[in-house]
Every structure is written in C-alpha cells, then in structure tokens.
C-alpha cells in the first residue's frame, strides 16, 4: 500500500510498529519520520521516536 500511495500514513505507522516488534529500530525510525507529516499521527510518531531515542541511549550506556 505504501509503495502505491506515498501519503498512506496509517500504513506507514503500522510498518513502523511492526519493525519495532522485530527489533529493526533504524527501519522503524524511517517509517515514523515519514508518518509524522500527517497531523493525525504526529503525536504518536513523536512519542515513538522519543522511545526509540531513549532505548538507543540506554543501549549505548550499557556498552
């Protein structure tokens, strides 16, 4: 769906959430950053990006 309709933000959020569950955080970040353009998903995506940042910071501290 996302390849056919570039502004299908709901699908982008679903993809991002799926990538988080798979542990592919860089890919998830890409999809959240695309979906944040839609005002309906702006707050949700911003929150998820903050969570990814926090998880990345925690992982770097543990190394």
From TrEMBL:
This is Tetratricopeptide repeat protein. It comes from marine metagenome.
